[in-house]
Amino acid sequence: MSTIKQRQELIAAAAAKMGKQVYAYDEAPKNIMPRKELHQDNGKVTTLEDAIKKTGLKDGMTISFHHHFRGGDKVVNMVVAKLAEMGFKSLTLAASSLSDVHEPLIEHIKNGVISKIFTSGLRGKLANEISHGLMEEPVVFRSHGGRGSAIATGDMHIDVAFLGASSCDPMGNSCGYSRSENAKSICGSLGYALPDAQYADKVIILTDDLVPYPNTPNSISERNVDHVVVVDSVGDSSKISSGAIRDTKNPRDILLAKQAAKVIINSGYFKEGFSIQTGSGGASLAAVKYIRQSMIDQGIKASFALGGITAHMVKMHEEGLIERLIDVQSFDKVAAESLKSDPMHKEVSANEYASADEPGSATHCLDIVILSALEVDVNFNVNVLVGSDGIIRGAIGGHPDTAADSALSIIVCPMLRGRIPCVVDEVTTLITPGTTVDVVVTEYGIAVNPRRPELKERLIKAGLNIVEINSLKEKATSIIGVPAALPFGDKVVGVVMNRDGSVMDVIKNIKG
């Protein structure tokens, strides 16, 4: 047996070989702090201005935000107003999406605080101003999966991420719901914020509910958070289901939803263990309700529902019709509350959801997706971003991601909206290539992509009204004539990126 001196010599030799120091047994630990105090007063919790200063943010850098509070978001306007007050200029704003509530950005663009925007969508007066040429640099539009990939690869580098959270502890563990009695806001999944938290150089969490450590389970870990800022409100939960994702009562949307349900039921993909996602349009969201009874009658259960999760999907999950929910964005408070309490309701990042670069992303396992459209052309190409007046008024979202990866992609779209045709010769802006679209459902008939003859045969056999897509375009023209060409200018106000990082289309300014 070795003596103490021999052991010390061996330890010293091992330490020297590794280039390390020998542990000093008799040296008392320094800076002892009670554990509770360590967690509650760690230096991360600070003011918004101090947090910005500590990140080292400089003019010309890129800041990012998520849109899980949708029309109720308060973080973007709050942060950009503070940055303007602090004198920042020429910042790139990389938000997962922007909406009507972000109208104050117009002045910050005019004043030079914001010089570039990367996003999935624009709405409201901000979109209108940009469509008319407000910005010198074109807005870069990416799908949700494309944005996640761009962040992960460094193609879209984020210097500072400002992420709103419904609850957060002093260490930075945060999520989109709260177990606190003082909870002011919930948004559910933080899926679109997770790539920002993982890859941004610096991360600031803004919360209106600072809870004791540890805030578990959490969406964003303390190891990815640099600063925590407590504010009065990060968002209005009542508005996460506003606008495009309201439950529809429109008779035409209900008709389209019922027709889409018939397509699903007779497609050959409606069988035990199928998976499904619905887009954000009223008809596509409603379609899932109309397959419910057939699932009950035939004893069929879905393996999972994906994407923006709604109260309808939660109900079907609770009824045992959908085994699991995979949630990148909670579309209402019911879904947000379900995420908090149900272990079979899983939150995923944008990359896990729809990145083309991740072999295991959920869209690669998706059987059926039901999506809406502003326009569809005779080659099955889809536009969900630019309106018939040439104004940007929507979002790419996960539209091209899910259409490309799913086994069956269904587009629900009226043939006409008022005096405007929705089935056209060529879409105003290409968002989802026709090679990835299988079926177009309109109130005047169902068109099947010629690439899917076996699907067309099944639907004809089921007695559905199958028509050629050219006939839908011709019928629309016969009713309302050929619309006048839009007065586009020569300035490029938007660039549409494909999910693989290539440029797919451009958007020009609209005159007048």
Describe the fold and architecture.
The chain is an alpha/beta fold. It folds into two domains: 45-239, Glutaconate Coenzyme A-transferase; 243-487, Glutaconate Coenzyme A-transferase (3-Layer(aba) Sandwich), CATH 3.40.1080.10. 30% of the residues lie in helices and 22% in strands. It is built from 16 helices and 25 strands. The strands form five sheets. The chain has a ten-stranded mixed sheet. Strand 11, helix 10 (282-298) and strand 12 (302-309) form a beta-alpha-beta unit. Helix 9 crosses helix 10 (282-298).
Question: How would the blueprint of this fold be written?
Answer:
Blueprint: H1 4-18, H2 35-40, E1 45-46, H3 48-55, E2 62-65, H4 75-85, E3 91-95, H5 105-110, E4 114-119, H6 124-131, E5 139-141, H7 144-153, E6 160-165, E7 167-168, E8 174-175, H8 194-199, E9 202-207, E10 227-230, H9 251-265, E11 275-278, H10 282-298, E12 302-309, H11 311-318, E13 322-330, H12 333-341, E14 345-347, H13 350-354, E15 368-372, E16 375-377, E17 382-383, H14 399-405, E18 408-412, E19 416-417, E20 420-421, E21 423-424, E22 439-442, E23 445-448, H15 453-461, H16 469-480, E24 488-497, E25 503-510
Parallel strand pairs: 1-10, 2-3, 2-6, 3-4, 4-5, 5-24, 6-9, 9-10, 11-12, 11-15, 12-13, 13-14, 15-18, 16-21, 18-22
Antiparallel strand pairs: 7-8, 16-17, 19-20, 22-23, 24-25
Helix pairs in contact: 9-10
